[in-house]
Protein backbone atom coordinates (compact mmCIF):
# COMPACT_ATOMS: atom_id res chain seq x y z
CA UNK A 1 0.00 0.00 0.00
CA UNK A 2 2.77 2.49 0.92
CA UNK A 3 4.42 1.98 -2.52
CA UNK A 4 1.43 3.44 -4.41
CA UNK A 5 2.12 7.11 -3.79
CA UNK A 6 2.30 10.04 -6.21
CA UNK A 7 2.21 13.81 -5.70
CA UNK A 8 1.66 13.32 -1.97
CA UNK A 9 -1.33 11.04 -2.47
CA UNK A 10 -1.71 7.35 -1.78
CA UNK A 11 -3.58 5.00 -4.07
CA UNK A 12 -5.17 1.67 -3.25
CA UNK A 13 -4.21 -0.25 -6.37
CA UNK A 14 -1.38 -0.32 -8.83
CA UNK A 15 -3.70 0.62 -11.69
CA UNK A 16 -4.85 3.78 -9.87
CA UNK A 17 -1.24 4.63 -9.12
CA UNK A 18 -0.23 4.22 -12.78
CA UNK A 19 -3.16 6.38 -13.88
CA UNK A 20 -2.01 9.12 -11.51
CA UNK A 21 1.54 8.91 -12.92
CA UNK A 22 0.17 9.27 -16.44
CA UNK A 23 -1.81 12.34 -15.38
CA UNK A 24 1.28 13.89 -13.82
CA UNK A 25 3.18 13.38 -17.05
CA UNK A 26 0.33 14.90 -19.05
CA UNK A 27 0.18 17.90 -16.71
CA UNK A 28 3.91 18.48 -17.16
CA UNK A 29 3.49 18.41 -20.94
CA UNK A 30 0.60 20.91 -20.74
CA UNK A 31 2.56 23.27 -18.50
CA UNK A 32 5.53 23.11 -20.88
CA UNK A 33 3.27 24.44 -23.65
CA UNK A 34 1.01 26.80 -21.71
CA UNK A 35 2.19 29.80 -19.73
CA UNK A 36 -0.13 29.87 -16.72
CA UNK A 37 0.58 33.59 -16.16
CA UNK A 38 -0.78 34.37 -19.63
CA UNK A 39 -4.58 34.93 -19.41
CA UNK A 40 -5.24 34.11 -23.07
CA UNK A 41 -3.39 30.79 -22.91
CA UNK A 42 -5.11 29.75 -19.67
CA UNK A 43 -8.55 30.57 -21.06
CA UNK A 44 -7.76 28.62 -24.24
CA UNK A 45 -6.52 25.68 -22.14
CA UNK A 46 -9.72 25.74 -20.09
CA UNK A 47 -11.80 25.48 -23.28
CA UNK A 48 -9.60 22.67 -24.58
CA UNK A 49 -10.11 20.74 -21.35
CA UNK A 50 -13.88 21.30 -21.53
CA UNK A 51 -13.91 20.00 -25.11
CA UNK A 52 -12.11 16.85 -24.02
CA UNK A 53 -8.83 17.51 -25.79
CA UNK A 54 -7.02 16.30 -22.69
CA UNK A 55 -8.43 13.41 -20.63
CA UNK A 56 -7.39 12.75 -17.06
CA UNK A 57 -7.68 9.40 -15.29
CA UNK A 58 -7.15 10.24 -11.63
CA UNK A 59 -7.97 12.71 -8.87
CA UNK A 60 -4.67 14.48 -9.54
CA UNK A 61 -5.74 15.26 -13.08
CA UNK A 62 -9.20 16.36 -11.95
CA UNK A 63 -7.67 18.76 -9.43
CA UNK A 64 -5.49 20.30 -12.14
CA UNK A 65 -8.59 20.64 -14.33
CA UNK A 66 -10.32 22.54 -11.49
CA UNK A 67 -7.32 24.79 -10.96
CA UNK A 68 -7.24 25.74 -14.63
CA UNK A 69 -10.98 26.44 -14.60
CA UNK A 70 -10.76 28.68 -11.51
CA UNK A 71 -7.75 30.56 -12.90
CA UNK A 72 -9.48 31.08 -16.25
CA UNK A 73 -12.56 32.44 -14.46
CA UNK A 74 -10.36 34.89 -12.55
CA UNK A 75 -8.79 36.13 -15.78
CA UNK A 76 -12.20 36.50 -17.41
CA UNK A 77 -13.45 38.50 -14.43
CA UNK A 78 -10.57 40.91 -15.08
CA UNK A 79 -11.70 41.37 -18.68
CA UNK A 80 -9.16 39.07 -20.38
CA UNK A 81 -10.03 36.94 -23.42
CA UNK A 82 -8.39 34.15 -25.40
CA UNK A 83 -6.55 36.73 -27.44
CA UNK A 84 -5.16 38.55 -24.42
CA UNK A 85 -1.45 38.39 -23.92
CA UNK A 86 0.70 40.10 -21.33
CA UNK A 87 4.23 41.44 -22.06
CA UNK A 88 6.92 38.83 -21.61
CA UNK A 89 9.56 39.18 -18.97
CA UNK A 90 9.99 38.66 -15.29
CA UNK A 91 8.66 42.06 -14.30
CA UNK A 92 5.60 41.73 -16.47
CA UNK A 93 4.84 38.27 -15.13
CA UNK A 94 5.20 39.54 -11.56
CA UNK A 95 2.88 42.43 -12.33
CA UNK A 96 0.34 40.07 -13.83
CA UNK A 97 0.64 37.70 -10.88
CA UNK A 98 0.18 40.60 -8.46
CA UNK A 99 -2.91 41.71 -10.33
CA UNK A 100 -4.19 38.16 -10.33
CA UNK A 101 -3.63 37.78 -6.56
CA UNK A 102 -5.34 41.12 -5.89
CA UNK A 103 -8.33 40.09 -7.95
CA UNK A 104 -8.45 36.74 -6.17
CA UNK A 105 -8.42 38.47 -2.77
CA UNK A 106 -11.18 40.87 -3.78
CA UNK A 107 -13.25 37.98 -5.10
CA UNK A 108 -12.72 35.97 -1.92
CA UNK A 109 -13.76 38.87 0.34
CA UNK A 110 -16.79 40.07 -1.63
CA UNK A 111 -18.02 36.97 -3.38
CA UNK A 112 -17.82 34.19 -0.80
CA UNK A 113 -21.52 33.47 -1.10
CA UNK A 114 -21.59 33.41 -4.88
CA UNK A 115 -21.90 30.04 -6.51
CA UNK A 116 -19.27 28.92 -8.98
CA UNK A 117 -20.43 28.71 -12.52
CA UNK A 118 -20.96 25.19 -13.66
CA UNK A 119 -18.15 23.69 -15.71
CA UNK A 120 -19.07 22.78 -19.25
CA UNK A 121 -20.15 19.17 -19.25
CA UNK A 122 -19.06 16.53 -21.66
CA UNK A 123 -21.64 15.37 -24.22
CA UNK A 124 -22.52 11.79 -25.17
CA UNK A 125 -20.56 12.19 -28.39
CA UNK A 126 -17.36 12.30 -26.32
CA UNK A 127 -17.80 8.62 -25.42
CA UNK A 128 -17.61 5.46 -27.47
CA UNK A 129 -20.74 3.51 -28.52
CA UNK A 130 -20.67 1.06 -25.60
CA UNK A 131 -20.27 3.82 -23.06
CA UNK A 132 -23.06 5.88 -24.64
CA UNK A 133 -25.35 2.85 -24.47
CA UNK A 134 -24.49 2.27 -20.79
CA UNK A 135 -25.05 5.95 -19.98
CA UNK A 136 -28.43 5.98 -21.72
CA UNK A 137 -29.54 2.82 -19.91
CA UNK A 138 -28.51 4.29 -16.57
CA UNK A 139 -30.40 7.50 -17.38
CA UNK A 140 -33.52 5.46 -18.18
CA UNK A 141 -33.21 3.52 -14.91
CA UNK A 142 -32.86 6.74 -12.94
CA UNK A 143 -35.86 8.25 -14.67
CA UNK A 144 -37.95 5.16 -13.88
CA UNK A 145 -36.86 5.33 -10.25
CA UNK A 146 -37.70 9.02 -10.14
CA UNK A 147 -41.18 8.44 -11.58
CA UNK A 148 -41.77 5.52 -9.22
CA UNK A 149 -40.69 7.66 -6.27
CA UNK A 150 -43.06 10.45 -7.33
CA UNK A 151 -45.93 7.95 -7.64
CA UNK A 152 -45.18 6.39 -4.25
CA UNK A 153 -44.96 9.81 -2.61
CA UNK A 154 -48.26 10.74 -4.22
CA UNK A 155 -49.94 7.55 -3.03
CA UNK A 156 -48.54 8.06 0.47
CA UNK A 157 -49.80 11.64 0.56
CA UNK A 158 -53.26 10.59 -0.64
CA UNK A 159 -53.29 7.79 1.93
CA UNK A 160 -52.34 10.18 4.74
CA UNK A 161 -54.99 12.72 3.77
CA UNK A 162 -57.57 9.95 3.34
CA UNK A 163 -56.72 8.48 6.73
CA UNK A 164 -56.96 11.90 8.34
CA UNK A 165 -60.27 12.55 6.60
CA UNK A 166 -61.75 9.20 7.61
CA UNK A 167 -60.44 9.58 11.15
CA UNK A 168 -61.93 13.07 11.42
CA UNK A 169 -65.21 11.87 9.94
CA UNK A 170 -65.59 9.00 12.38
CA UNK A 171 -64.44 11.15 15.28
CA UNK A 172 -66.96 13.91 14.50
CA UNK A 173 -69.72 11.44 13.80
CA UNK A 174 -69.02 9.58 17.04
CA UNK A 175 -69.12 12.82 19.01
CA UNK A 176 -72.47 13.82 17.51
CA UNK A 177 -73.93 10.33 17.90
CA UNK A 178 -73.07 10.07 21.58
CA UNK A 179 -74.24 13.59 22.31
CA UNK A 180 -77.57 12.59 20.77
CA UNK A 181 -77.66 9.36 22.78
CA UNK A 182 -76.91 11.25 25.97
CA UNK A 183 -79.85 13.53 25.23
CA UNK A 184 -82.07 10.46 24.80
CA UNK A 185 -81.12 9.15 28.21
CA UNK A 186 -84.03 10.08 30.42
CA UNK A 187 -86.19 11.06 27.43
CA UNK A 188 -89.44 9.22 27.92
CA UNK A 189 -91.18 10.45 24.79
CA UNK A 190 -90.07 7.46 22.74
CA UNK A 191 -90.14 4.86 25.49
CA UNK A 192 -93.31 3.19 24.31
CA UNK A 193 -93.48 -0.56 24.73
CA UNK A 194 -90.28 -0.75 26.74
CA UNK A 195 -92.14 0.49 29.79
CA UNK A 196 -93.69 -2.95 30.10
CA UNK A 197 -91.69 -5.60 32.02
CA UNK A 198 -89.00 -7.27 29.90
CA UNK A 199 -88.94 -11.04 30.27
CA UNK A 200 -85.51 -12.66 30.01
CA UNK A 201 -85.19 -16.42 29.44
CA UNK A 202 -81.96 -17.87 30.80
CA UNK A 203 -82.82 -21.54 30.41
CA UNK A 204 -85.91 -23.47 29.51
CA UNK A 205 -86.66 -23.83 33.20
CA UNK A 206 -85.82 -20.34 34.40
CA UNK A 207 -87.52 -17.07 33.67
CA UNK A 208 -86.47 -13.77 35.23
CA UNK A 209 -88.76 -10.78 34.87
CA UNK A 210 -86.96 -7.43 34.90
CA UNK A 211 -88.02 -3.88 34.16
CA UNK A 212 -85.81 -1.52 32.23
CA UNK A 213 -85.14 1.70 34.13
CA UNK A 214 -87.35 4.47 32.69
CA UNK A 215 -84.41 6.68 31.71
CA UNK A 216 -82.97 3.93 29.49
CA UNK A 217 -86.22 2.80 27.86
CA UNK A 218 -85.82 4.99 24.76
CA UNK A 219 -82.24 3.86 24.21
CA UNK A 220 -83.16 0.23 24.82
CA UNK A 221 -85.84 0.48 22.16
CA UNK A 222 -83.24 1.72 19.69
CA UNK A 223 -80.80 -1.14 20.38
CA UNK A 224 -81.59 -4.19 22.50
CA UNK A 225 -77.85 -4.83 22.96
CA UNK A 226 -77.67 -1.95 25.41
CA UNK A 227 -76.67 -3.32 28.84
CA UNK A 228 -75.92 -0.12 30.75
CA UNK A 229 -74.39 3.35 30.90
CA UNK A 230 -70.97 4.39 32.23
CA UNK A 231 -70.22 7.92 33.43
CA UNK A 232 -67.28 9.50 35.27
CA UNK A 233 -67.97 13.08 36.31
CA UNK A 234 -65.78 15.86 34.88
CA UNK A 235 -64.43 13.58 32.13
CA UNK A 236 -65.50 12.72 28.60
CA UNK A 237 -66.45 9.20 29.70
CA UNK A 238 -70.24 9.31 29.41
CA UNK A 239 -71.22 6.43 27.13
CA UNK A 240 -73.68 3.58 26.69
CA UNK A 241 -72.27 0.11 27.33
CA UNK A 242 -73.14 -2.71 24.95
CA UNK A 243 -73.00 -6.50 25.30
CA UNK A 244 -73.22 -9.33 22.80
CA UNK A 245 -72.13 -12.96 22.72
CA UNK A 246 -69.29 -11.83 20.39
CA UNK A 247 -66.64 -9.72 22.09
CA UNK A 248 -65.29 -8.64 18.70
CA UNK A 249 -68.39 -6.92 17.31
CA UNK A 250 -68.32 -3.66 19.26
CA UNK A 251 -64.60 -3.20 18.70
CA UNK A 252 -65.51 -1.46 15.44
CA UNK A 253 -69.26 -0.77 15.62
CA UNK A 254 -71.12 2.05 17.32
CA UNK A 255 -74.45 2.10 19.14
CA UNK A 256 -76.30 2.37 15.82
CA UNK A 257 -74.53 -0.77 14.61
CA UNK A 258 -72.59 1.17 11.97
CA UNK A 259 -68.92 0.59 11.28
CA UNK A 260 -66.93 2.95 13.46
CA UNK A 261 -63.22 2.65 14.24
CA UNK A 262 -63.89 4.21 17.65
CA UNK A 263 -66.00 1.18 18.48
CA UNK A 264 -68.15 1.24 21.63
CA UNK A 265 -67.74 0.50 25.28
CA UNK A 266 -68.83 -3.10 25.79
CA UNK A 267 -69.09 -5.58 28.61
CA UNK A 268 -67.38 -8.95 28.40
CA UNK A 269 -69.72 -11.63 27.10
CA UNK A 270 -68.98 -13.75 30.19
CA UNK A 271 -70.48 -11.13 32.52
CA UNK A 272 -74.02 -11.39 33.85
CA UNK A 273 -75.67 -8.23 35.19
CA UNK A 274 -78.72 -10.17 36.40
CA UNK A 275 -77.05 -12.90 38.42
CA UNK A 276 -74.25 -10.40 39.18
CA UNK A 277 -70.76 -11.69 38.73
CA UNK A 278 -68.21 -10.79 41.35
CA UNK A 279 -66.50 -8.64 38.72
CA UNK A 280 -68.05 -6.91 35.69
CA UNK A 281 -65.46 -6.07 33.01
CA UNK A 282 -65.98 -3.24 30.50
CA UNK A 283 -63.63 -2.71 27.53
CA UNK A 284 -63.04 0.38 25.40
CA UNK A 285 -60.51 1.62 22.85
CA UNK A 286 -57.73 3.98 23.89
CA UNK A 287 -58.37 6.53 21.13
CA UNK A 288 -55.81 9.28 20.56
CA UNK A 289 -58.69 11.73 20.21
CA UNK A 290 -59.64 10.96 23.81
CA UNK A 291 -62.86 9.21 22.77
CA UNK A 292 -64.00 6.06 24.55
CA UNK A 293 -61.28 5.18 27.10
CA UNK A 294 -58.71 7.49 25.49
CA UNK A 295 -58.26 9.36 28.78
CA UNK A 296 -58.59 6.42 31.17
CA UNK A 297 -54.83 6.34 31.70
CA UNK A 298 -55.12 9.69 33.46
CA UNK A 299 -55.74 7.47 36.46
CA UNK A 300 -52.02 6.71 36.48
CA UNK A 301 -51.85 9.92 38.54
CA UNK A 302 -52.95 9.54 42.15
CA UNK A 303 -54.04 13.19 42.24
CA UNK A 304 -56.31 12.59 39.26
CA UNK A 305 -57.74 9.50 40.93
CA UNK A 306 -58.53 11.41 44.10
CA UNK A 307 -60.45 14.00 42.06
CA UNK A 308 -62.30 11.31 40.04
CA UNK A 309 -62.59 8.56 42.61
CA UNK A 310 -66.21 7.59 41.90
CA UNK A 311 -67.64 5.92 38.82
CA UNK A 312 -71.29 5.65 37.92
CA UNK A 313 -72.29 2.47 36.17
CA UNK A 314 -75.96 1.71 35.66
CA UNK A 315 -77.18 -1.51 34.19
CA UNK A 316 -80.41 -1.01 32.27
CA UNK A 317 -82.13 -2.52 35.33
CA UNK A 318 -80.50 -0.77 38.29
CA UNK A 319 -78.14 2.05 39.20
CA UNK A 320 -74.75 1.69 40.82
CA UNK A 321 -72.01 3.87 42.25
CA UNK A 322 -68.42 2.58 42.50
CA UNK A 323 -65.22 3.79 44.14
CA UNK A 324 -61.81 3.33 42.51
CA UNK A 325 -59.75 0.73 44.34
CA UNK A 326 -56.84 -0.39 42.12
CA UNK A 327 -55.08 1.12 39.09
CA UNK A 328 -52.48 -0.97 37.29
CA UNK A 329 -50.88 -1.96 34.03
CA UNK A 330 -50.96 -5.49 32.71
CA UNK A 331 -50.99 -7.30 29.39
CA UNK A 332 -52.60 -10.17 27.52
CA UNK A 333 -50.68 -13.34 28.42
CA UNK A 334 -50.25 -16.62 26.59
CA UNK A 335 -52.63 -19.35 27.66
CA UNK A 336 -49.83 -21.45 29.13
CA UNK A 337 -48.43 -18.61 31.29
CA UNK A 338 -49.19 -19.14 34.96
CA UNK A 339 -49.88 -15.59 36.07
CA UNK A 340 -52.78 -13.46 37.31
CA UNK A 341 -54.98 -12.60 34.34
CA UNK A 342 -57.40 -9.88 35.37
CA UNK A 343 -59.48 -10.39 32.23
CA UNK A 344 -60.35 -13.92 33.36
CA UNK A 345 -61.50 -12.87 36.83
CA UNK A 346 -65.31 -12.85 36.76
CA UNK A 347 -66.27 -14.81 39.86
CA UNK A 348 -64.68 -15.89 43.11
CA UNK A 349 -65.99 -19.23 44.32
CA UNK A 350 -64.62 -18.72 47.84
CA UNK A 351 -63.33 -16.06 50.17
CA UNK A 352 -59.82 -17.45 49.76
CA UNK A 353 -60.01 -17.14 45.99
CA UNK A 354 -61.38 -13.60 46.30
CA UNK A 355 -58.59 -12.51 48.65
CA UNK A 356 -55.98 -14.06 46.37
CA UNK A 357 -57.23 -11.96 43.44
CA UNK A 358 -57.30 -8.83 45.59
CA UNK A 359 -53.69 -9.39 46.62
CA UNK A 360 -52.64 -9.83 42.99
CA UNK A 361 -54.26 -6.55 41.98
CA UNK A 362 -52.96 -4.71 45.04
CA UNK A 363 -49.43 -5.82 44.15
CA UNK A 364 -49.85 -4.47 40.61
CA UNK A 365 -51.51 -1.21 41.63
CA UNK A 366 -49.59 2.00 40.87
CA UNK A 367 -50.55 3.48 44.25
CA UNK A 368 -52.60 2.75 47.35
CA UNK A 369 -56.08 4.31 47.25
CA UNK A 370 -56.93 3.11 50.75
CA UNK A 371 -60.03 1.35 49.40
CA UNK A 372 -60.45 -2.35 50.23
CA UNK A 373 -63.00 -4.96 49.25
CA UNK A 374 -64.32 -7.99 51.11
CA UNK A 375 -65.75 -11.26 49.84
CA UNK A 376 -69.28 -10.56 48.62
CA UNK A 377 -68.53 -7.04 47.33
CA UNK A 378 -69.31 -6.31 43.69
CA UNK A 379 -66.49 -5.05 41.49
CA UNK A 380 -66.27 -3.12 38.22
CA UNK A 381 -63.19 -3.29 35.98
CA UNK A 382 -62.47 -0.83 33.14
CA UNK A 383 -59.86 -2.00 30.64
CA UNK A 384 -58.17 -0.33 27.66
CA UNK A 385 -55.02 -0.72 25.59
CA UNK A 386 -51.67 0.56 26.83
CA UNK A 387 -48.65 1.23 24.60
CA UNK A 388 -46.03 0.74 27.32
CA UNK A 389 -45.53 -2.88 26.17
CA UNK A 390 -46.79 -5.29 23.49
CA UNK A 391 -50.44 -6.26 24.14
CA UNK A 392 -50.34 -3.92 27.12
CA UNK A 393 -53.47 -2.99 29.06
CA UNK A 394 -54.36 -0.17 31.46
CA UNK A 395 -56.85 -1.21 34.12
CA UNK A 396 -59.01 0.56 36.70
CA UNK A 397 -60.86 -1.56 39.29
CA UNK A 398 -63.62 -0.13 41.48
CA UNK A 399 -65.85 -1.43 44.29
CA UNK A 400 -69.58 -0.87 44.37
CA UNK A 401 -70.42 1.38 47.32
CA UNK A 402 -74.09 2.20 46.63
CA UNK A 403 -76.92 0.17 45.19
CA UNK A 404 -78.46 3.38 43.93
CA UNK A 405 -77.84 7.11 43.74
CA UNK A 406 -79.69 10.23 42.75
List keywords for this structure.
eight-stranded mixed beta barrel, two-stranded antiparallel ribbon, 2 domains, alpha+beta, Sortase, Chain: A, 38% helix, elongated, 8 helices, 406 residues
CATH topology of the largest domain, what is it called? Sortase, Chain: A
Gross CATH architecture of the largest domain: Beta Barrel
Strand content: 15-25%
- Whole-angstrom Rg: 41 Å
Alpha-beta content class: alpha+beta
Question: How many β-strands, per DSSP?
Answer: 12
The domain count comes to 2
Distance between the termini: 91 Å
According to CATH, the homologous superfamily of the largest domain is Sortase
Helix content: 25-40%
Q: Which CATH class of the largest domain applies here?
A: Mainly Beta
The main β sheet shows up as: 8 strands, mixed, barrel
Strand order of the largest sheet: 5-6-7-8-11-12-10-9
Mean pLDDT: 82
**Helix and strand element order:** EEHHHHHEEHEEEEHEEHEE
Q: What ranges have pLDDT less than 50 throughout 5 or more consecutive residues?
A: 110-118
Write the layout of secondary structure elements.
Blueprint (H helix, E strand, L loop, with lengths): L4 E2 L2 E2 L3 H20 L5 H12 L8 H19 L12 H21 L18 H56 L13 E4 L5 E4 L6 H6 L3 E6 L6 E5 L22 E3 L11 E5 L18 H6 L2 E6 L5 E11 L19 H14 L14 E8 L5 E11 L4
Parallel strand pairs: 6-7, 8-11
Antiparallel strand pairs: 1-2, 3-4, 5-6, 5-9, 7-8, 9-10, 10-12, 11-12
Helix pairs in contact: 1-3, 2-3
Amino acid sequence: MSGYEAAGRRFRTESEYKAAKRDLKLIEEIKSKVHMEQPGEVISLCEALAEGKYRFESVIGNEFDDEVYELAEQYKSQGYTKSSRLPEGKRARKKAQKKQNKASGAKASSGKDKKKKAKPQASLEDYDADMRKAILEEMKRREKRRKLLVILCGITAIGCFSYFGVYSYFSDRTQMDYEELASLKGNYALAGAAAAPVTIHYTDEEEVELTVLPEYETLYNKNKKLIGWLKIDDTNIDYPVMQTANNEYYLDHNFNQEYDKNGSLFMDAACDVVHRNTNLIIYGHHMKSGKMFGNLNNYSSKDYCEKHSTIRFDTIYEKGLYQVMYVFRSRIYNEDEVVFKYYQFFDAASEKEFESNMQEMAALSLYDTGVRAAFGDELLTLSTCDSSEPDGRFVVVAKRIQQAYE
